[in-house]
Amino acid sequence: MAAAGERLGRPAGPGPGCGEEPFGPSVLGTREHWDAAYERELQTFQDIGDVGEIWFGEESMVRIIRWLEKQKIPLDSSLLDIGTGNGVLLVELAKSGYTNLTGIDYSPSAIELSEKIREKEGMSNIKLKVEDFLAPSAELSGFEICIDKGTFDAISLNPDNAAGKRKQYVQSLCSVLKPGGFFLITSCNWTKEELSNEFREGFEILEELPTPKFCFGGRIGNSVTALVFQRKKVRPSVLDKLD
Ligand SMILES: C[S@@+](CC[C@H](N)C(=O)[O-])C[C@H]1O[C@@H](n2cnc3c(N)ncnc32)[C@H](O)[C@@H]1O
């Protein structure tokens, strides 16, 4: 099986020119693709109990959990996994003691798979819901932590107006994450600089988490970028000060 990065990642070659879209459209950016993929994974889980693909590998989950632990994020903080897929990250978070966990995915078969895995692991307190993050429901709000592992990448490959969908993603993130809340993103399509630019409105970069490096042609690079952003706190308006 190909590594997750190879399938989601941008093709090798020179970067985009000014004003150009960085990636061509791909089926990986469509809901039909994910529905079909998770239907297959659901069948495999039912047949042999295999949870399916863990995007960016187990180390990507360890990296996120270590960061939360290092920051002493309270175990009851509200945490949203955006595009949770099989929900295994949430199960690992629950095993580490986190108690207020929600996962959403726009693919009903992904949510069905994550529900089955949750049941097998006895983690009934994890909340799971079919939701399109680009049109979030009103109840999806006030989260202290949001995590994205590969979902912004998938959205960036949408064949229909990917640039508009990336903008909508940032707006959705602003509506679900509290001011001062943390956003942890793992990507194989975007560099640190590109992500900082995508999320510049409303977010500031706090930290880059170390990921494996590769060396090619004498140059060292990372195939995966893992960043922590913090949602900017809203400044009190003049009217608030008059109160
Ligand atoms: C590369 S997979 C990553 C899955 C999971 N985060 C993981 O690390 O295993 C991308 C996920 O994003 C979901 N997704 C893509 N666009 C979405 C959207 N607009 N709203 C919710 N989920 C979306 C897909 O269904 C898929 O589960």
Which terms would index this structure?
243 residues; alpha/beta; Rossmann fold; seven-stranded mixed sheet; two-stranded antiparallel sheet; 9 strands; disordered N terminus; binds S-adenosylmethionine
Q: Brief description of this entry?
A:
With 243 residues, this protein is α/β, with parallel strands linked by helices. The protein contains nine helices and nine strands. It has one domain: Rossmann fold, CATH 3.40.50.
Bound molecules: S-adenosylmethionine
State the distance separating the first and last CA atoms.
61 Å
Helix content: 25-40%
Give the C-level CATH assignment. Answer: Alpha Beta
Spatially, the strands of the biggest sheet line up as 3-2-1-4-5-9-6
**Domains (count):** 1
Low-pLDDT residue spans? 1-6, 11-19
Outline the biggest β-sheet: 7 strands, mixed
The radius of gyration is 18 Å
Query: Into which percentage range does the β-strand content fall?
Result: 15-25%
Helical/strand content category: alpha/beta
Average pLDDT: 89
- What is the approximate shape? globular
The run of helices and strands is: HHHEHEHEEHHEHEEEEH
CATH architecture: 3-Layer(aba) Sandwich
Number of strands: 9
Number of contiguous helices: 9
The CATH fourth-level homologous superfamily: Vaccinia Virus protein VP39
CATH topology: Rossmann fold
